[in-house]
Structures are given as structure tokens and as C-alpha cells.
Amino acid sequence: LDIKLDWKQDKLTDFDFSECTYLMLWHHSSKTFDFTTLPHIPKLKKLSVIFSNVKNLNGLEKFPKLEAVELTYLRNLESLDGIEKMSQRIKFFSIESARKLTDITPVTKLENIEGLGFINIGDVADLEFLHDMYEIRSLSFVGTKIISGDLTPIVEHFNIRHAGFDNKRHYSHKSEEIEQLLSQKPKTNNE
Prior knowledge:
By secondary structure, the protein is mainly β. It is built from two helices and eight strands. It has helices at residues 152-156, 175-183, and strands at 2-6, 22-28, 46-52, 68-72, 92-98, 115-121, 138-140, 162-164. An eight-stranded parallel sheet has the order 1-2-3-4-5-6-7-8. Strand 7 (138-140), helix 1 (152-156) and strand 8 form a beta-alpha-beta unit. The longest helix has 9 residues, at 175-183. The relative contact order is 0.10.
């Protein structure tokens, strides 16, 4: 069951979340600046949040069956605190338009991530954290600057098959070059 909810206009009491597997939430606002105000949704597998005032990810641990998280326009998001308590079932995780977020290394706490996106976030130091993400197959950091410019962790990673990013002058590789190198990797048993 899919539920689309506008935090500003809709009342939580108007919804039965007991069978909800996908929640699309607009205009989330919390006095605690996190997700602890979200209702308990026991069967939730996918969460999309568009516009929120959260500063961290605390509260998302209440969804033990969560497999996919898409967070967009979180202009106040400063840290991934709380990510270490989230479901280990999560295979897809994406944050878009969160310019205050610069430290993304805590994402390694999500051990089963296959698809990862950090799009239009703050400048990120490097991609060394990828060495600790064994299951990742797809990575996108379009609109996000990697300060070190070193993109070799993408090429060296044994599972990554796709990487999307903007070409920058100081990057070690161009987008086209990375895609060519990734396409030459031997297939794994999961492909």
C-alpha cells in the first residue's frame, strides 16, 4: 500500500499506516529537527521525503523493514547521525539537495547498500569510504564536488558497475573514462 502525505496539509490520523510499504512525504517539519516525529510504520520498505527541516537521520531506525530511502531538499541536513541505527536491509540510499552535508563516511554503516546517491550536497573530502562498502554497484554524486579529485576508489572497487558524476578539471578521471573502465570489469555471480 502506497501513501502520499503532505505534512503541512494532511492529518496523520486520516491515514492507516498498518499496511503501508511505501511512504512519500512532503514538507516534513519537526521541532526536534529529526525523523522521530514520523509515525511507526511496521511494514515500510521505501521512504521518500521531499522537503524537511531535519538536521540528522535520527528516527529512521523505527522502520526495520526499510530497503530504500530517498531524501530530497533537506537544506538543514548537517550530518548522517542516526544512520548507524537504521535497517541493514537498505539497498538503496540517496540524498539530494542537502548542501550543508559534507561528511558522508557514516554511510558505510549501511552494509548492504547496492545503490548510493549524494546529489547536490556539500563538498566531500574524498571517496575512500567506498573501500568499506562491499555490496555497492552504483554510485552517483552529480553536482557534488570531491575535493581530493581522486576517483580511483571507483575504478578499484570490485563491485561498482556504474558511476554518475560531473566532469571537473581536478578529477583524476573523466566520466566517460570511468564508464569505459567499469564496463571492462569481469562480471560477478550476481550479474
